[in-house]
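User: hey, got a sec? need Putative ABC transport system ATP-binding protein folded
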Amino acid sequence: MSIDLTGITLTYPDGDSRLTALDEVTLHVPKGRLTAVVGPSGSGKSSLLAVAATLITPDHGTVRIDGTGTAGLSRRDLAELRRRTIGIVFQQPNLLPSLTAAEQLQVMAHLDGRRPARSRTRALELLDAVGLADQAHRRPHELSGGQRQRVNIARALMNDPTVLLIDEPTSALDHERGAAVIDLITGLTHDRSTATILVTHDRTHLAAADETVEMRDGRALARAAGEGPAAGQEPVVT
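Assistant: Yep! Here you go:
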C-alpha cells in the first residue's frame, strides 16, 4: 500500500502563457510512513496535495494509489477511488454545526452505503482513537479548536483509507495543541499503516516525519527529517 507520484507536471493558464505549479515532481510514500511537505507560499505544496488526492489531473506524469494508476479513470471512478482509499484532512475542519462528533463521522459511512449500527460503532472507535471518546455527543460549538481538528482527522479515517493527505492541520492551533495533533497523526500513520502526506508551514513539527520534502518553485527537494533548509541540494527529479 502506497502512493506514488512520478514525473508530475502541472500548469495553469496565466494570460497568454502558462504558469508551472509542479515541475517534474516524483514522490513515493509507502505504508506506515509520514512524509512532510514544506515550502513558501506559491511553491506548489497545495497543488501537490490536490494531484495526490486526484482532485486535479496533471498535465504529465502518473499517480498510482495502492498500485492503481489514475490515468484514464472517469470522474465517477476517481470519486470511488477517493472514497475507498483516500482520507483527506482539510485545513479547516468544516464540521456540520447541527451534528454531534459521532454523527460527523457517520455521514461518511452513510455515503459509502454502510449500515447505521455498524457505522456508529466505527465512529465511536475512531473518536476513542483520537482521544475524544467522552466528546462523541458534543456539537462543534461545544468543542475546542484542537478537538474539532481531531474530529476532522477521525472523519478522514472513517472509511479505513490506505492513503492519508493532510493540509496544514495546525494552522489555527497554538503550539501545544498543534504538537498534540501532529503526535496523533504520527501515531495513526504507524498504527494504521497509512501512507501519509502532511503539508505544513510549521517546521518545528518536522522531526516527527519519516521524510521531509521541500517545495521550491514547483520542484521537490528531499532532505532528512529534522534537518535545516536543503540549501544546494539537488532536486529529486531534475
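Quick note: The beta strands are 2-14, 17-30, 33-38, 60-65, 68-69, 86-89, 163-167, 195-199, 211-216, 219-223. Let me know if you need anything else on Putative ABC transport system ATP-binding protein.
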